[in-house]
Amino acid sequence: LGACRVGVWSSSSVVSAGGGSLRVQTPQWRRCFASSTAVGNFVKVEQDQQEGVVVLKLNRPDKLNALSVEVGEEFKHTIATLNKESRDLRCVVLTGEGKAFSAGGDLDFLMERTRTSPERNEAIMLDFYSRFLSVRTLPVPVITAINGAAIGAGLCLAMATDMRIVSADTPLAFNFSKLGLHPGMAATFFLPLVAGPQVASRLLLTGETFKGAQALGFNIVSEVVEKDQVVPRALEIARNIAKSSPAVVRQTLKSLRTQQEQGLQAALLREAAAQATSYAMPDLIEGLAAIREKRPPVFTNQL
To answer: In degrees rounded to 5, what are phi and psi of residue 191?
Structure first.
């Protein structure tokens, strides 16, 4: 990732030890993040001032951090690298570069799915989910600082993390039904788990846009703060976690996630199959056209 290769071990200076010498190794990601930022094409990784706290940024601001296969591949690689050298990691803050957290699935990627067979699309979508849901393989808490609009798959990514912070006026939506697409990336799993079945039904079936203040009432976020305090507040919590017992934090997190993830794989399989069906229907083409033409969609009654 740029000049600083995340996760590469590098020898430090020689340290005197009882008349001899001992070459101490520290993770390259920690050494280079301490003074700089590792930048890939679509993901940025920054070391916070607090030891062990890392900021992970979606870095496609010109596309409102839309999620594509290329973004997913780099995201998965970054997560794998942090996992490889995670001994000194204490907490991760996930956010977006620019004015949005993520506008959701890349429209070109979605249009390409309409030209692919349902059988192939089912496998493609499972792979797509796994790239971004790899965030849950990190052994430390992940806090999402929703710095701007989080729509569709972008909001699903935030839902897969352990905590979410947002500002009152930030627009949020699980807008799949307005697009003519079945929800995916664990939307039908994490939303009812976090917000309850009634809220999940309302938000997934209407596809309505709601604000951060409403998200707090829905139990989707843990806190609402001023817009310029979203990332600082997430970092404040992360630094506090970093001062707790690392072993206890990791074991507690594992216990929480183990309980949370019962049934997750079955939900992902169902979503991938249903999305593959959606890609073969005219409603999705209409939904994508409506977005490009900036008009309301007109869906058919065809099932």
So the answer is: -65, -50
- The pLDDT, as a whole number, for residue 37 is 57
Strands 149-151 and 37-39, bridge-based pairing: unpaired
Q: Which amino acid is it at 213?
A: A
Q: What tokens does 14 get? A: 């020689």
Q: Which amino acid is at 132?
A: F
Q: In this predicted model, what pLDDT tens digit does every residue of 230-257 receive, in sequence order?
A: 999 999 999 999 999 999 999 999 999 9
Provide the whole-model pTM. Answer: 0.88
Q: How far apart are CA 125 and CA 122, in angstroms?
A: 5
Q: What is the mean pLDDT of residues 21-31?
A: 42
| Residue 298: closest CA among 273, 104, 288 | 288
Strands (E), the chain: 9-17, 20-27, 37-39, 43-47, 53-58, 91-96, 100-102, 142-146, 149-151, 163-167, 171-173, 209-211, 223-225
Report the distance separating Cα 167 and Cα 170, nearest Å.
6
Cα distance between residue 132 and residue 68, in whole Å: 10
Q: What is the pLDDT of residues 174-208, one digit of tens each?
A: 999 999 999 999 999 999 999 999 999 999 999 99
Question: Residue-wise over 258-289: b if at least 16 C-beta within 10 A, else e?
Answer: eebeeebeebbeebbebbbbbbebebbebbbe
Q: What are phi and psi of 212, to 5 degrees?
A: -55, -40
Report the chain's mean pLDDT, rounded to a whole number.
Answer: 89
Tell me the C-alpha to C-alpha distance, in Å, between residue 257 and each of 11, 138, 186, 295.
35, 11, 14, 41
